[in-house]
Amino acid sequence: MRSFVSAIRAVKLYPPNNPVYSQSVKKSFESLNLALARKPEFTIGIQKTFFTYERMPSGKEPQINQAIAQDLFAKGLREIIFNRGVSEKELLDLCQALALSNEEMAMKSGISSILWEKGATNITVTEAGLDDVITTRAETAPDIDVVKRPEAEGEGASKPKKDITALARTLVLGDLFSDPEGYGADMVEFARQTVGAHETVEDRLFSLYKEAGRQIGERSGDEHEALFEGLAKSVLSIDAPMRTSLIAGKMYADLDANMVAEQGLELPKELPGELHEIVTGRYPREWTVQQVTTLLKRLSQNMPEPLKPPSAPEKVPAVPLREDIYMIAKEMSEYTAEELEDLKLISDSGMESDIIEAAVRTLIFLMTLVKDDALRKTVGKEVHLFSGVVHQIEEMLSYLLKKKDYDLASLIIRALHMPVAAEFKPRLIEAIRKTTSPKVIGGMINELRNSAKGSTEYNSAYAYLAMMERESTEVMLDLLAEEKDRVFRLFLVDLLMDLGKNQTALIAEKLSDDRWYVVRNAVRILSEYKNERTVSFLLRVLDHKNLQVRQEVAKGLILIGGKKATTLLVRYLQDKHADMQFMALRGLGEISGAGATEAQNVVDFLQNRRLTGKENELTIEGIRVLGKIGDRGTAEFLKRYTKLRWWRSRRLQSGLRAEALTSIEEIEKRRRDGGRTTGR
């Protein structure tokens, strides 16, 4: 136990090249192997301030171990199980994952997902879930993995409130009074973490809210109504796409199915009728708190019945086919001219926006129904059916892009990224590759260029491109390298600064391009991100043979600022071009982070410079910079320029003398007021 905790601490504190890093992991692995030689598994429990072994406290923990236990407990970890056969690499992967921050761990969907991605199959991690508060019943959703609280955590503890633990935050139903927005955000995050293999996040979220409503419905007293209103507010605080799918696609659909079943016998023969809106599924996109509250109350009263097993084939009654069925089928397959005209009219009317949206949502829903164990289809048959549905979705996407309906097209892109069974993944990957082709993305970029920035059309197209951030960045970089129109190049650079902010490594690959203008554009884009990582990228082209590239690098370093950027900028004082020297001097006077070290570099640059009209310009700029960043020692150096030598040009010396006196005065003034005076 001690060696494992030491390994966690070492991985968190030291870089990988530090000997302590590797030695701690190796020592922990050796101890773990000894323990697993005696038993097939080794279990470590995690409580708020201590670790447990076989559900018993491991002893009095040092203060530093308590801090590690608190950190892991706050990240939602409750138990770690090592199985016999665990490798040193798997142990290292676990320690590296435990060293991540809460935000990084949340972005990667928890420690279990990280270990699964890295193939650490001999380590099992139990994370905190909805802890006995909102759990779906097994007969309602058998595919959903409900996260349980470890037994040790609940021993001896009486909790007056049922709580939720999600992402290191403990929630109670009372949070619906004070922070319904936060409650909603954590419900969505937990739904993402615990989604089943054959369901969507919306399905999981719907079941969680349904169970929450049921628990609130069991309460009595004045807080009953307030809790339902808080629950409704938490639903309305969810992001728009998820909110629309949850309310219109799940809550209303579930409620309306019951209403249609109740009133089915009373429905009129022809539409429109009383339930026309329900049958066609046309709903508004905005809801009030009262409407959602009513929905939640109704849904909480209708708990699902247990699933019934399918009927056996031998119990299905057999009905003989009619003898003339072949002739009837043949007549149906051959259309007359009048029937073809009617079909054309029906086809044209089927292009209405609401019908298109209904078709898209239906196809997306069908994707989730292809794999149904109750239907007992072969894998090949399932893949064929799934491919057919995806093909129709691809056709629909092409139509939507032609019609510039990017909001609905974005819905299809999200659907193509939904989790599916392993045998379906190749077909989805193929569909995604088609949607991210250079031709499609190039057309979207032209659409952005032709739309006014901030307009509805521009925002919709931009949101669509943002969903394919990496692919869009690659296409724009290629276009930028080949484009002749300067206006379009500037447009692409501005667009890359927005869309490519998370693709700096991809943009940095262009720094090794043979074409100097491609390198210059990459430097310009990277410089706009203004972070320390960009400085390491710019170091690659610091000594580029092209002057314009070096000038762009200098501009970028000045823009980024900081000690690293300043250190690199100083190197341009030794450049062979006077323009680069002048840019470096001027930049040192403007960049944040320049100080005494950089002032000494400028002093070295000014040493033994010739007194000529051509070189005096650089000398004067250097003296001016020393006035901004120099100290008392620099002022002593500048005094050499205050004395006029009779054997040298008085006019040239006078310019240096005037600038030196001004810089000395500025240094002294800054020294007197403690450095509060800003430079010129």
Short description:
The chain is mostly helical and 680 residues long. It is 61% helix and 5% strand. Among the domains are: 2-127, no CATH class; 152-265 and 277-301, no CATH class; 351-433; 595-680, no CATH class.
Report on the structure:
The protein is mostly helical. Among the domains are: 126 residues, no CATH class; 139 residues, no CATH class; 83 residues; 86 residues, no CATH class. The protein contains 34 helices and seven strands. The strands form two sheets. It has a five-stranded antiparallel β-sheet. It has a two-stranded antiparallel ribbon with strand order 6-7. Strand 6 and strand 7 form a beta hairpin. 30% of the residues are buried.
Task: Set out the fold topology.
Elements (H helix, E strand, L loop, with lengths): L1 H12 L5 H20 L2 E6 L4 E3 L2 E2 L5 H12 L2 E7 L4 H11 L3 H6 L3 H8 L4 E5 L23 H4 L8 E4 L2 E4 L2 H4 L1 H14 L7 H17 L5 H14 L3 H24 L12 H5 L8 H13 L23 H9 L3 H13 L3 H15 L11 H24 L3 H11 L8 H11 L2 H13 L5 H11 L2 H14 L3 H14 L4 H5 L7 H12 L4 H7 L8 H14 L2 H8 L7 H13 L5 H11 L6 H17 L2 H7 L11 H23 L8
Report how far apart the termini are: 61 Å
Molecular shape: extended
Radius of gyration, in Å, reads 34 Å
Q: What is the percent of helical residues?
A: 55-70%
Structural class: mainly alpha
Total E-strand runs: 7
Number of helices: 34
Which blocks of ≥5 consecutive residues have pLDDT under 50?
130-171, 267-282, 676-680
Oligomer: single chain
Mean pLDDT: 76
Beta-strand share of residues: under 5%
Describe the sheet with the most strands: 5 strands, antiparallel
**Order of strands side by side in the largest beta sheet?**
3-2-1-4-5
